[in-house]
């Protein structure tokens, strides 16, 4: 025998000699290490079975205090699966069969002991097969239980997610890789209703027919530009504002939408999800606000014209009848209305910008001449500042809106005056830089702190608010100036150093020479 | 009296009495003869009795507004009488173009600017179109 396996044998035998004989025979089988215990009573057998594990039981058939059938009963009682071989000199065919029926694995005649080792080997093998099978079964049962648990968990998670999805106010659409819509939450269904999509699944193009998407500028979005389509192509973190024309409801929805690809564990894209938030109310409120500002500012114009007009009339035609003091008071009224007028104009510009209604009436402009006019006018009110205008060429022509460009110049010059100490020079340059006209306003004023420079063109931004240089204002003029320049196809910018001054500039494309 | 011996006549069509009388006072101080009308209908009635050298026209008025007035006016009257539109609209020039007026004056306005526009557009006999 080639087997090198260990063997622990329990030998049930009243004869020490017979037990030795059996042990010697087994040893020939090459089991290593081989150990055995001999017992001959039921009590000992029970004890031995409890105290350690046995690979095999070799039992005599009849002994004074125990029979092989009783031994088998004990084994069965302990619920142990250990091969049980009867070695007997006297066992008859019938008894042997009965013993086998009662759980004996085999029997070997004492006069044929060489048969014992092969029998042991066979029984060990079969026992191992039985154990392996049992192991496999219990493993399978365990896996099955685990699977059942996971499946219940998954079910619960799915229910949870479904409730979450259906409770959120935003619409959620999910598509698979091939562009079939696989999930629409309740809000999404409401967006599509009364069209029932439960019967036939939607494709991406069906969806884009039902919800016709436009960019905020009004251009219709192509199929390739659909957020879900872009997400399927691998674009992450898509976040855009759109206008959706919901065909079923026949009206526009303003939405903010986000989309992202869904990937499997290998990172392969298996679908995409889109979340659509209806912000129509917000947009409409915002619109209403802009309209309110526009109407309110507009209504202020006529009373303003009355106050301003009469004050000016008094100053102009009746100054002889007025004391110097009264004239001074009237001047203050006139200046106050001047400021009010500027505020009203800024509010109107602002609402027009928000409503995208700032229209330019474009004509041929000589920037150099316009700059001179502005300087002349501003000198009337800013007598304490020296304003110097330099131009390289006598005529620099652009296509632009006279009033709007004038407004930008006024803003830049007024700011320069506002934030410069009296007596300091303000330098206005009008130059030509290859194909653009450039206007720059350089002051020797207080400058803008580095950390405040980033937001200078933002709406309602006041770099000097709550400082010693807070001269009030709404923080809208530079914002408006930038919008005007941008609408002229130009650029606006600045450079500033704290304590030294600022240079604000803008560039507008030169007018093409007529040939 | 300004340039000529005969007083130039101006018709102010404006529903706001405060604005109307302000303009009237300013123009009279400058030696113009002034007629006022509170709306387009009154202005048309005025035009039956006089031929002004310039019309200052408010656009938003009750009874008959500026647009309606211009329409009627163009049918029955001398196209050579210049019209200057008075408006609080955001784009005053656009308003002027709408009714083919000669010029526009945005509200609120500087008195100097008012006089400037009036003198620039006054009917001189060989009127040339100013508005594009």
Overview of the molecule:
The complex is a heterodimer of chains A (515) and B (132). By secondary structure, chain A is an alpha/beta fold. Helix content of chain A is 44%, strand content 23%. The longest helix of chain A is centred in the N-terminal third of the chain and has 52 residues, at 116-167. The mean pLDDT of chain A is 87. With 132 residues, chain B is of the alpha/beta class. Helices cover 39% and strands 18% of the residues of chain B. Chain B is globular and about 30 Å long. In chain B, 43% of the residues are buried. Chain A binds chain B through residues 298, 301-302, 304-306, 308-310, 312-313, 316-317, 337, 341, 348, 352, 357, 359, 361, and chain B through 16, 18-19, 22-23, 25-26, 29, 88, 90-91, 93-94, 107-111.
Keywords, separated by commas or semicolons:
heterodimer, A: 515 residues, alpha/beta, 6-stranded antiparallel sheet, 18 strands, rod-shaped, B: 132 residues, 5-stranded parallel sheet, 39% helix, 18% strand, disordered C terminus
Q: Estimate the helix proportion of chain B, in percent.
A: 25-40%
As a whole number of angstroms, the C-alpha radius of gyration of chain A is 50 Å
The order of strands across the largest sheet of chain B is 2-1-3-4-5
Report the end-to-end length of chain A measured between terminal Cα atoms.
113 Å
Q: Write down the secondary-structure element order of chain B.
A: EHEHEHEHEH
Helix content range of chain A = 40-55%
From the spread of the alpha carbons, the general shape of chain B counts as globular
Radius of gyration of chain B: 13 Å
Instruction: Round the mean pLDDT of chain B to the nearest integer and report it.
Output: 82
* Overall strand count of chain B: 5
Instruction: Please tally the helical runs of chain B, counting DSSP H or I stretches of 4 or more residues.
Output: 5
Q: How does the helix and strand content of chain A classify structurally?
A: alpha/beta
Percent of residues in beta strands of chain A: 15-25%
């Amino acid at each position: 025998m080639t087997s090198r396996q260990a063997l622990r044998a329990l030998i049930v035998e009243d004869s020490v000699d017979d037990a030795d004989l059996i042990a010697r025979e087994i040893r020939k089988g090459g089991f290593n290490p081989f150990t055995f215990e001999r017992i001959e009573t039921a009590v000992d057998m029970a004890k031995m079975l409890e105290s350690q594990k046995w690979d095999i039981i070799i039992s005599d058939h009849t002994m004074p205090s125990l029979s092989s059938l009783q031994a088998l009963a004990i084994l069965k009682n302990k619920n142990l699966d250990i091969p049980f071989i009867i070695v007997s000199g006297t066992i008859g065919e019938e008894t042997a069969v009965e013993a086998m029926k009662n759980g004996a694995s085999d029997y070997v005649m004492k006069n044929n002991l060489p048969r014992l080792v092969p029998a042991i080997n066979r029984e060990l093998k079969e026992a191992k097969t039985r154990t392996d099978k049992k192991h496999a079964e219990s493993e399978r049962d365990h896996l099955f239980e685990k699977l059942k648990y996971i499946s219940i968990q998954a079910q619960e998670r799915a229910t949870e997610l479904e409730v979450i999805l259906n409770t959120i106010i935003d619409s959620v659409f999910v598509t698979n890789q091939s562009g079939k819509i696989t999930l629409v939450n309740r809000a999404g269904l409401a967006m599509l209703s009364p069209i029932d999509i439960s019967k036939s699944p939607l494709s991406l193009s069906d969806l884009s027919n039902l919800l016709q998407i436009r960019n905020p500028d009004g251009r219709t979005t192509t199929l390739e530009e659909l957020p879900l389509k872009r997400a399927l192509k691998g674009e992450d973190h898509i976040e855009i504002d759109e206008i959706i024309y919901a065909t079923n409801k026949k009206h526009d929805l303003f939405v903010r939408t986000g989309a992202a690809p869904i990937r499997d564990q290998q990172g392969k894209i298996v679908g995409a999800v889109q979340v659509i938030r209806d912000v129509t109310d917000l947009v409409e409120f915002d619109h209403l606000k802009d309209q309110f500002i526009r109407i309110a500012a507009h209504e202020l114009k006529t009373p303003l014209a009355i106050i301003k007009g009469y004050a000016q009339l008094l100053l102009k035609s009746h100054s002889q009848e007025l004391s110097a003091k009264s004239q001074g008071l009237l001047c203050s009224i006139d200046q106050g209305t001047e400021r009010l007028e500027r505020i009203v104009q800024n509010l109107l510009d602002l609402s027009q910008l928000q409503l995208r209604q700032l229209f330019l009436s474009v004509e041929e402009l000589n920037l150099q001449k316009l700059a001179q006019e502005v300087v002349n006018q501003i000198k009337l009110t800013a007598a304490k500042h020296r304003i110097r205008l330099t131009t390289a060429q006598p005529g620099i022509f652009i296509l632009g809106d006279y009033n709007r460009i004038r407004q930008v110049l006024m803003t830049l010059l007024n700011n320069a005056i506002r934030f410069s100490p009296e007596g300091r020079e303000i330098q206005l340059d009008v130059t030509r830089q290859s194909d653009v006209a450039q206007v720059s306003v350089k002051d020797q004023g207080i400058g803008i702190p580095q950390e405040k420079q980033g937001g200078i063109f933002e709406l309602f931004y006041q770099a000097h608010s709550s400082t010693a240089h807070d001269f009030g204002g709404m923080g809208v003029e530079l914002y408006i100036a930038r919008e005007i320049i941008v609408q002229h196809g130009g650029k606006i910018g600045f450079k500033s150093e704290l304590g030294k001054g600022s240079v604000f500039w803008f560039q507008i494309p030169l007018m093409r020479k007529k040939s | 009296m300004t340039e000529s011996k005969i007083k130039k006549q101006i018709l102010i069509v404006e529903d706001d009495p405060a604005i109307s009388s302000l303009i009237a006072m300013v123009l009279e101080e400058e030696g113009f003869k002034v007629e006022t009308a509170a709306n387009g209908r009154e202005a048309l009635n005025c035009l039956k009795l006089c031929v002004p050298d310039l019309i200052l026209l408010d656009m938003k008025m009750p009874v008959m507004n500026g647009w309606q007035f211009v329409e009627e006016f163009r049918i029955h009257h001398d196209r050579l009488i210049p019209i200057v539109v008075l408006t609080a609209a955001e784009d005053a020039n656009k308003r002027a173009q709408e009714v083919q007026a000669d010029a526009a004056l945005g509200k609120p306005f500087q008195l100097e600017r008012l006089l400037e526009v009036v003198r620039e557009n006054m009917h001189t006999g060989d009127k040339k179109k100013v508005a594009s």
